[in-house]
Write a structure and sequence with these properties.
alpha/beta; 4-stranded parallel β-sheet; 12% strand
Length: 139
Amino acid sequence: MTSRTLYLHIGTPKTGTTALQNFFYINQDALQSRGIIYPLNDVWHAAHHRLGWTLDKKGRPINLPAGLKGADEEWSDILTSDAVLGSNGKILISSETLSRCSEASLLRIRKYTSDYHVKIVVYFRRQDRMMSSLVNQMT
């Protein structure tokens, strides 16, 4: 295992994940100046949803993005990108699609990230407040 750290922000519904992802995307340069790489190759709406979509069919959009590859290739593209390979610091990947992975998919993620010290970042919200937020969004 290397000294590099991979933060997997997996998000859960209605916990501000999209706002965080937009912040990460917009502030890529500021993050990089602090030693945190938010890889931007093949991001979908400022996040790394492609990584989760390749592992599990649940939670996929009806129309998958053009050029979606297999899990091995999508994860490799991110983790072997120039920005990641050129960094000795911290890597940040964010997608709520990763919060819905099966046990088999988690084992695959473990294989893909075996060269990193992985830290999972997840936020939870009280169910009654989440439901209230969902109703407000639909209204």
